Amino acid sequence: MQGNRRSGEYLIREASTEDIPGILEVFNYYIENSFAAYIENSVGPEFFQVIQSEKDQVKDEHFPFYVIEEDSKIIGIGALRPYFPFPNFRYTGIASYFILPGHTRKGLGSRMLEKLCMKASEKKMKSLLANVSSKNEASLNFHLKHGFIECGRFRKIGTKFGKYFDIIWFQKFLE
């Protein structure tokens, strides 16, 4: 129903291969400008092909990868994937999302998280995990505000921009 949307409205939908340039723009922004993406160097299309092939190895089960679109431009991405690709971990997923600055603090992260939680519940998942850099205050606060609890911390595990950072794991129970 894209044709019926007014200018400035946001649409969350499944990503397609045509979205790869926009997906890369969002993800590479966070690689180059923040601690939200841990990688230090920009990635190309092959990065998301590797992710897709890993997801496809989980018993041919589909795990969603979404884009947020405004006026035909990709301004955010979100994904649900299994915590481990083993059947005994099928009730736990990992959620991740990135929204370009200028589009944050408009409820889009909440909408994306709600969609990912709904999909996780449909897959009979009981909890969602998220991992966040200790240098990413906005994301730390977002997860706490949305019912996640801190469940683990790896101290000074990574470096970026010449600074050490912790990885903080969060968990949200879906039942």
Description:
By secondary structure, the chain is of the alpha+beta class. It has one domain (2-129): Aminopeptidase (3-Layer(aba) Sandwich). It is 29% helix and 34% strand. The protein has four helices and seven strands. The chain has helices at residues 20-33, 45-56, 108-122, 137-145, and strands at residues 10-14, 65-70, 73-82, 92-99, 127-133, 149-160, 163-173. The protein has a seven-stranded mixed β-sheet, sandwiched between helices. The longest helix has 15 residues, at 108-122. The radius of gyration is 16 Å and the shape is globular.
Helix content: 25-40%
CATH topology, by name, is Aminopeptidase
Please describe the biggest sheet, giving its number of strands, its sense, and whether it closes into a barrel.
Answer: 7 strands, mixed
N- and C-termini, Cα separation = 32 Å
Which CATH class? Alpha Beta
Weakly predicted, low-confidence segments: none
Instruction: Please identify, by name, the CATH architecture.
Output: 3-Layer(aba) Sandwich
Tally of DSSP β-strands: 7
Total count of helical runs of at least 4 residues: 4
Percent of residues in β-strands: 25-35%
Q: What does the radius of gyration come to? A: 16 Å
Number of domains: 1
